[in-house]
């Protein structure tokens, strides 16, 4: 539980912790306003990310989402330390829909009444078949390319990277995440 609290404090910009900004915040962000949250549920593989403190040394990263009875989303992020098949560490959290395409997530659910413990998780784009998603946040401290499969082809990767660019991100800082082949 302490580890979850520390992770949450590191990822939220309102905590005063300095985070890198990978996005020109003068560029308006566009989100997937028709996001079907039910179709978004399930396992996602992290294909690429902007460097951040809470995923340092992580490879083989997955995110599992499941709807809860209260309408919120259960979040389980798994990081494999040092290698795609390395020792697993998990962060468990809760997400809620703030607006179409805009979710908020906390990894300290027992303190979810504190507004500063919720971080923005905006779905900038999702493919029609819900196989690839592009995620960002307004302050530009995080961003991800996720996919249902651990590998995507270069054309698909470049299309996802263009979504980040369109939303003001400097994709030169984007790092691919090693995954095991299925």
Question: If you had to describe this structure to a student in words, what would you say it looks like?
Answer:
Keywords: Cell outer membrane, Lipid-binding, Lipoprotein, Membrane, Signal. With about 180 residues, this protein is of the alpha+beta class. It has one domain (about 1-170): Lipocalin (Beta Barrel), CATH 2.40.128. Helices cover about 15% and strands about 35% of the residues. The chain contains 3 helices and 9 strands, in the order H-H-E-E-E-E-E-E-E-E-H-E. The chain has helices spanning about 1-10, 35-40, 155-165, and strands spanning about 40-50, 60-65, 75-80, 90-100, 100-105, 120-125, 130-135, 145, 175. The chain has an 8-stranded antiparallel β-barrel with strand order 1-2-3-4-5-6-7-8. The chain is globular, with a radius of gyration of 15 Å. The chain starts with a helix and ends in a 6-residue tail after the last strand. The model is unreliable at about 1-20 (pLDDT under 50).
